[in-house]
């Protein structure tokens, strides 16, 4: 008992809880149900349909007192006390944790909602502020030690083993463009297993050796020591399970993801084969924050005894004691006792940043901070640490290399991998292989059944996934189960839309050929009146006779007023009110007597006026051009003649030209003809109907006066307008 008792008494086996398990693994997007242990929000919008953990375990040992070449420890003949490298100081610490995860699972209950249920067994022990120099002194027993004197201060130790059954709920809380936030909560039922604690208060220890009789060496101590446990270790060496030792715990967490390429994952643009992009990691940066292990276990039957350890004991007394309680009760005064202890969980804050560097390569920075006081009785918490973990991850394989600075054991590096249904790793394996002074070791391994979200297969790319596609190799619409619509008559109209599926026809007629319903030689598609026969010229419609006069509108000059065929469908009129109907009136717009077919008669007065006007038309001597000197008067005369002639639309007039006998007769003849035509053309130019006029030249053949005198010859050079009769 000599060495064992002293080691227990002075808390030589320094242990501290390390509640963080699965180092380097749990940040993997495919960690599944294990990730819920560290941030319950992580399972929302996960890459899993479901993830079933069959069995997994994680354990770690860390300290800042003993350094070893880890793989030599397992060799035959290895002496831990002599071959390890010690680094004593006034307050040494160490780390031990075992975490066993039993059957557990997670599954998506809706696109934005996820549940997880897990079972877990945990074992933690914790010692703080142990004087490592004392450990070095007594590691071989007091009977071989020299004198020493140490102030131990207030060392504190606690150990706890318990089981958990937890249920986690996580959901997407906010999603807007590149911003994505999810949250989660875990509630845990805690079943206590075993609990023990030891705490010193201002303890000091001195040893005076007796060289003549080592058994008589004296151990002098001062201060108080409290010892407690859920079992009656003093009177019962067997373990008694206490089902009444139970409690409740909680975890909660948030995860924010920055998704700069959010438009690529807009479910409104997702095809059925994309499965709403559930299989993809969409973030560039991910930030996680969680608080775990809020709660406690109430050990109602636990007992705490406090001893005043002021006194002196000898080596012989130590050797004679069978257990710690017997030794304390026999040699020290029990100050107080109490029953019932509520022990806290190792509450901690966890924060991490995950960067998707490129494609499937990630870099994670994780920090853990204990929220438990090291000085509180029966308390234990995690060691603060920072871990940087580069990793490669895919659906069925991941590889990660965590590099950690631990509060007590310093820097360590490890590696791990996930392959299919197995995962295994260590946060310290690389350090353990390389270092001769390792102060920590950890491991994790497990087996699970992952069922991943994945893209659906669409072989023909028609938007109908293969498992729903009746024609997987030929594209077709969703409405026809992914098969193309048939077109029996090859007219470009699918049978489902074709009213005549066996006879080719245009799409406009629902796949049927056009008919000629009225038999007018125009097909119904171009027949404006498909039910009534009509000429092609009128688009297959019969010509209308609006006024019902028997003359079709197309030939009716008065389609809205009944009339006579001979009057182009218009009724008979007397426009000039001369009593002669227009149909019989040769001059319907000019008043005239019936005996002249409604036209005015050419009177002597009219002829006389025409003669007078015509006499005043002057030509250049010897030419058929009007005289410039008399141009104004001549133009006025022509206008007057025009107005007279217009009053006789059915009369025929002749424009006759005459000359004197001076000069060549042929020249005079031609000149008279030209002058008559010039006058006729000028009258036509002014608006006289050409049908009412003729022109003729007579030369000197019809003189009206004697050519022997100058005045006679002047009278003979003339232009006359002669009435020839009606047209």
UniProtKB/TrEMBL annotation:
Keywords: Cell outer membrane, Membrane, Signal. GO terms for cellular component: cell outer membrane. It comes from the Bacteria. Its main location: membrane. InterPro entries: Bact_OuterMem_StrucFunc, DUF5723, OMP_bac, OmpA-like, OMPA-like_CS, OmpA-like_sf, Thrombospondin_3-like_rpt, TSP_type-3_rpt. Residues 1-19 form the signal peptide. One of its GO terms (molecular function) is calcium ion binding. Residues 606-727 form the OmpA-like domain. It is found in: Cell outer membrane. GO terms for biological process: cell adhesion. It holds the Pfam family TSP_3. This is OmpA/MotB domain protein.
């Amino acid at each position: 008992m000599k060495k064992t008792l002293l080691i227990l008494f002075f808390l030589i086996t320094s242990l501290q809880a390390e509640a963080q398990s699965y180092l380097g693994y749990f940040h993997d997007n495919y960690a599944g149900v294990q990730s819920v242990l560290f941030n319950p929000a992580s399972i929302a919008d996960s890459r899993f349909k479901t993830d079933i953990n069959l069995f997994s375990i994680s354990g770690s040992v860390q300290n800042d007192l003993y350094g070893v070449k880890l793989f030599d420890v397992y060799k035959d003949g290895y002496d831990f006390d002599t071959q390890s490298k010690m680094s004593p100081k006034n307050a040494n610490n160490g780390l031990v944790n075992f975490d066993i995860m039993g059957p557990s699972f997670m599954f998506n209950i809706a696109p934005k909602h996820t549940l997880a249920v897990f079972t877990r067994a945990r074992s933690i022990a914790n010692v703080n502020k142990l004087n490592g120099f004392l450990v070095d002194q007594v590691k071989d027993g007091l009977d071989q030690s020299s004198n020493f004197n140490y102030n131990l201060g207030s060392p504190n130790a606690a150990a706890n083993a318990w089981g958990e059954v937890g249920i986690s709920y996580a959901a997407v809380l906010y999603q807007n463009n590149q911003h994505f936030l999810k949250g989660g909560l875990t509630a845990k039922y805690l079943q206590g297993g075993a609990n023990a604690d030891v705490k010193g208060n201002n303890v000091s220890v001195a040893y005076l050796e007796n060289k003549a009789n080592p058994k008589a060496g004296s151990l002098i101590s001062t201060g108080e020591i409290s010892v407690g446990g859920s079992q009656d270790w003093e009177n019962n060496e067997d373990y008694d399970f206490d089902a009444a030792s139970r409690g409740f715990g909680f975890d909660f967490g948030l995860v924010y993801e920055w998704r700069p390429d959010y438009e690529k994952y807009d479910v409104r643009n997702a095809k059925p084969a994309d499965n709403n992009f559930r299989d993809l990691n969409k973030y560039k940066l991910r930030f996680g924050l969680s608080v775990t292990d809020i709660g406690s276990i109430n050990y109602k039957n636990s007992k705490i005894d406090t001893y005043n350890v002021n006194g002196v004991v000898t080596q012989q007394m130590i050797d004679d004691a069978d257990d710690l309680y017997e030794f304390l009760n026999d040699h020290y005064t029990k100050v107080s006792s109490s029953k019932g202890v509520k022990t806290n969980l190792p509450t901690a804050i966890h924060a991490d940043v995950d960067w998707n560097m490129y494609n499937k390569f990630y870099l994670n920075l994780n920090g853990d901070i204990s929220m438990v006081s090291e000085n509180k009785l029966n308390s234990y918490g995690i060691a603060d640490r920072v871990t940087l973990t580069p990793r490669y991850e895919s659906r069925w394989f991941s590889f990660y290399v965590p590099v950690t600075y631990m509060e007590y054991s310093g820097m360590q590096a490890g590696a791990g991998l996930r392959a299919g249904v197995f995962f295994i790793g260590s946060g310290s394996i690389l350090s353990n292989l390389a270092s001769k002074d390792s102060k920590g070791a950890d491991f994790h391994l497990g087996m699970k059944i992952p069922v991943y979200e994945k893209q659906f297969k669409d072989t023909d790319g028609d938007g109908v996934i293969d498992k729903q596609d009746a024609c997987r190799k030929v594209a077709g619409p969703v409405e026809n189960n992914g098969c193309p619509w048939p077109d029996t008559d090859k007219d470009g109209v699918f049978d489902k839309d074709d009213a005549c599926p066996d006879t080719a026809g245009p799409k406009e007629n629902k796949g049927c050929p056009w008919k000629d319903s009225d038999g007018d030689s125009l097909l119904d598609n171009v027949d404006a009146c498909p039910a009534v026969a009509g000429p092609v010229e009128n688009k297959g419609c019969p010509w209308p006779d609006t006024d019902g006069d028997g003359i079709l509108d197309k030939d009716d000059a008065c389609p809205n007023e009944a009339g006579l065929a001979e009057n182009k469908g218009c009724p008979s009129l007397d426009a000039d009110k001369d009593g002669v109907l227009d149909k019989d009136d040769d001059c319907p717009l000019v008043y005239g007597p019936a005996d002249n077919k409604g036209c005015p008669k050419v009177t002597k007065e009219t002829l006389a006026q025409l003669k007078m006007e015509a006499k005043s038309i002057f030509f250049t001597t010897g030419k058929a051009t009007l005289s410039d000197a008399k141009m104004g008067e001549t133009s006025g005369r022509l206008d007057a003649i025009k107005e007279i002639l217009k009053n006789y639309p059915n009369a025929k007039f002749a424009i006759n030209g005459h000359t004197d006998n001076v000069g060549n007769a042929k020249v005079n003849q031609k000149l008279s003809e030209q002058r008559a035509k010039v006058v006729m053309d000028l009258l036509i130019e002014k608006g006289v109907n050409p049908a009412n006029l003729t022109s003729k030249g007579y030369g000197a053949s019809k003189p009206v006066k004697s050519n022997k005198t100058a005045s006679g010859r002047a009278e003979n050079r003339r232009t006359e307008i002669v009435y020839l009769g009606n047209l």
